Automatic annotation (TrEMBL):
<keyword id="KW-0808">Transferase</keyword>
<dbReference type="GO" id="GO:0005886">
    <property type="term" value="C:plasma membrane"/>
</dbReference>
<feature type="transmembrane region" description="Helical">
    <location>
        <begin position="242"/>
        <end position="262"/>
    </location>
</feature>
<keyword id="KW-0460">Magnesium</keyword>
<keyword id="KW-1133">Transmembrane helix</keyword>
<keyword id="KW-0812">Transmembrane</keyword>
<comment type="pathway">
    <text>Cofactor biosynthesis; ubiquinone biosynthesis.</text>
</comment>
<keyword id="KW-1003">Cell membrane</keyword>
<feature type="transmembrane region" description="Helical">
    <location>
        <begin position="169"/>
        <end position="188"/>
    </location>
</feature>
<feature type="transmembrane region" description="Helical">
    <location>
        <begin position="54"/>
        <end position="75"/>
    </location>
</feature>
<comment type="function">
    <text>Catalyzes the prenylation of para-hydroxybenzoate (PHB) with an all-trans polyprenyl group. Mediates the second step in the final reaction sequence of ubiquinone-8 (UQ-8) biosynthesis, which is the condensation of the polyisoprenoid side chain with PHB, generating the first membrane-bound Q intermediate 3-octaprenyl-4-hydroxybenzoate.</text>
</comment>
<dbReference type="InterPro" id="IPR000537">
    <property type="entry name" value="UbiA_prenyltransferase"/>
</dbReference>
<dbReference type="InterPro" id="IPR006370">
    <property type="entry name" value="HB_polyprenyltransferase-like"/>
</dbReference>
<comment type="similarity">
    <text>Belongs to the UbiA prenyltransferase family.</text>
</comment>
<dbReference type="InterPro" id="IPR030470">
    <property type="entry name" value="UbiA_prenylTrfase_CS"/>
</dbReference>
<dbReference type="Pfam" id="PF01040">
    <property type="entry name" value="UbiA"/>
</dbReference>
<dbReference type="InterPro" id="IPR044878">
    <property type="entry name" value="UbiA_sf"/>
</dbReference>
Length: 295
């Protein structure tokens, strides 16, 4: 956390710890949740989605990411005390009590419940199914080497809801696009996991980075290749225009660039590569527009 960021300068002092608890000061995760969802909205609308739907899904992505981070910090409050990178988080450092954190979590859930009124019945049920996925993720690192899979399922769930709310159906091609996004996230979040692998080993936690060990480049490359294959299939099944495939080629090139720079011995560089996946999310939207608007 940065003590001189916008949270410190612009928010009332009492609000700051809550903003940090839901990671408003660290928007990378929000963008990585939102951008694939926006791409799915474009594909489902076969062009430009309505402004109202863009607003609802953007707010939903922000809230669900905040809920996930709040649950994560509640579950990990004892573990975070033992890690240099996380020991100053609001709940761990005592800036927020557990009781107030639970009230804050309830408040976020209530706002999300109100948002359900703005989407159709199919999408409401999908939203309800997302909650246990978000709740169980923080516990996964305690008993499986694959918590990134659960995280990818939850982070990209909005892609399915984009289709269900726009078309009242989730076609197989949309599911394949979602699975591709899940595999993409397993890849880039594994890069991030290598940053924390030393602390995770000491604490007895698990991650894909520990499972892949020194074969991380091969594993992550495999996930990225599978992502591109699934996204190509989805484009064909959804009759995307040529612009979609052109941008997919750019995304594939970006993945190659990531793997060329990926280095197990360079945590700082790996964190940069993790953040660079925001550009993949942006390119997903461009690809969706190229495949629909140009079609």
């Amino acid at each position: 956390m940065r003590p001189d960021d916008w949270v410190e300068h612009w928010l009332p002092r009492a609000w700051g710890p809550y903003a940090r608890l839901c990671r408003l000061d660290r928007p990378v995760g929000t963008w990585l949740t939102l951008l694939p969802c926006l791409a799915a909205l474009v594909q489902a609308a076969d062009g430009w989605p309505t402004v109202w739907r863009l607003f609802i899904f953007s707010l939903g992505a922000l809230l669900m990411r905040g809920i996930g981070c709040t649950i994560n910090d509640i579950c990990d409050r004892d573990i975070d005390q033992k890690v240099e990178r996380t020991r100053f988080r609001p709940l761990t450092s005592g800036q927020i009590s557990l009781k107030n954190a639970l009230y804050f979590l309830l408040g976020q859930l209530l706002v999300c419940a109100v948002l359900l009124l703005a989407i159709n019945a199919y999408s409401r049920w999908l939203a309800v199914l997302l909650l246990p996925i978000v709740a169980v993720y923080p516990l996964c690192k305690r008993f499986t080497y694959w918590p990134q899979v659960v995280l990818g399922i939850g982070f990209n769930w909005g892609m399915l809801m984009a289709w269900s709310d726009t078309r009242n159906i989730v076609p197989l091609a949309a599911v394949a696009m979602w699975v591709g996004a899940v595999l993409w996230q397993v890849g880039y979040d594994s890069i991030y996991a290598y940053v924390d692998v030393r602390d995770d080993k000491e604490l007895g936690l698990h991650s894909t980075a520990m499972r892949f060990a020194d074969k991380g480049k091969q594993w992550i490359s495999g996930f990225y290749i599978a992502t591109i294959v699934l996204w190509v299939y989805s484009g064909v099944a959804l009759h995307m225009a040529w612009g979609y495939y052109l941008i997919l080629a750019v995304i594939a090139g970006h993945f190659v660039w990531q793997m060329r720079l990926f280095n197990l011995a360079r945590p700082d560089q790996n964190f940069m590569l993790f953040r660079a996946n925001i550009w993949v999310g942006v390119l997903m939207i461009v690809a969706a527009l190229g495949g629909t608007v140009l079609g």
